[in-house]
Amino acid sequence: MDELLAGLDALAAEDLTPPFGPALLERLRPLLAAQNRLAAEIARTVREAEVSGAAEVDGLTTMSSWLRGHGHLSETEAARVVRTGRALPHLPALAAAFAAGAVTGEQAGVIARVAEPEHLTAAAEQGVDLEVVDRLLTGVACERPHADVAKAVHHYLDQLDEDGPEPDPTEDRRLAMTKHADGSITGRFDLDAVGGERLQTALESVVQAGRGAGDERTRAQQQADALVQLADNALASGSLPILRGHKPQLLVKVALDDLADPAVGRGTAQLGFGATISAARARWLACDGQITRIVLGPDGLPLEHGRTLRLFPPHVRRAAEVRDSGCVFAGCAAPTWWCDVHHLLAWIDGGATDLANAALLCERHHTKVHHGFRVERQPDGRWRTWRPDGTEIHTGPHRTGPPLVTAA
């Protein structure tokens, strides 16, 4: 182990600036193989530790919990390592290729599913030669991309239970979210084919509808924005289940002084689930929200609360929707139901809550406007957009909008 760590220290000390592309790739290939071999040794060691009950030494009952606590692995990754370690004794071809560095830890974790107890039992009952399956799947892993390995394993398991009862799709659906110190969230989900198709269809509809001119977001960013937009649409529709007599809505708590202060004020506002955001972000959320005044005593307990007021009443929003037809930011095609009503002059600075001071903006462009971009409606009804440096954005056609009066 000391020699291994010394070798890694030597690699880390190398200067990677002089080599150009091909030389760097040649360096990368054996590193990937070494990573695979280390993953194989980790899985093998975890299995032996599990058999011997080694986790008890540190006061834990399972190696999965040990890997999460001592190895800082996620719940999903810890489960994959444990599953792989358990499968290797049943799959010698996979074990050999894994140890040689020809198979990745992720591939091994997928193939390991065929050696789960229920699948081993089903294979034995049907006379399946597991040795042949082991060789075939390992061959796919050595030669093909990860997605092909997953398809091959799914095909095998599907054939193994082709005459069995149709499984309940809800049993295997999972969504795990982890909140970080800054309130941001990362997560992982597993959906059945139909559930996944529904999610992809919904996301794709939002992605395609929101692709304005000059959109430089990556595919991953587009899909993440689409997911947030779906949640925002659901909250705005008011059709979600009632929680203790109230419709679920985004809750922001911020002091009046911080709300009125034009400074960013980092970490001054708190969201309903405990995350903290800046006062600037709170002001943005307040553009098209409801305000409730709550007076707190010296001990922080509420002494008095005022009536909740909707900043933009429904009739003003309706008028803005008719006038603007959607997001007014140059080049954006987001529909009205994706948009907040933005105060051109902030209400905290005395801006009126009326149609003349209103502009429809989608979440992405509402954020832009609160970070230095500017939109302005001309006397002829056209909207114009400026960057923070004062230059105008000309992407896409100018929006003129329909007449201000329309039939109900």
TrEMBL record:
Domain HNH nuclease, chain residue ranges per copy: 315-367
CDD domains named in the record: HNHc
Superkingdom field: Bacteria
Region (Disordered), start-end ranges: 384-408
InterPro entries: DUF222 (IPR003870), HNH (IPR002711), HNH_nuc (IPR003615)
Region forming the signal peptide: none
Pfam families from the UniProt entry: DUF222 (PF02720), HNH (PF01844)
GO MF assignments: endonuclease activity; nucleic acid binding; zinc ion binding
Homology family: Belongs to the Rv1128c/1148c/1588c/1702c/1945/3466 family.
The name this protein goes by in its record: HNH nuclease domain-containing protein
Organism listed in the record: Geodermatophilus africanus
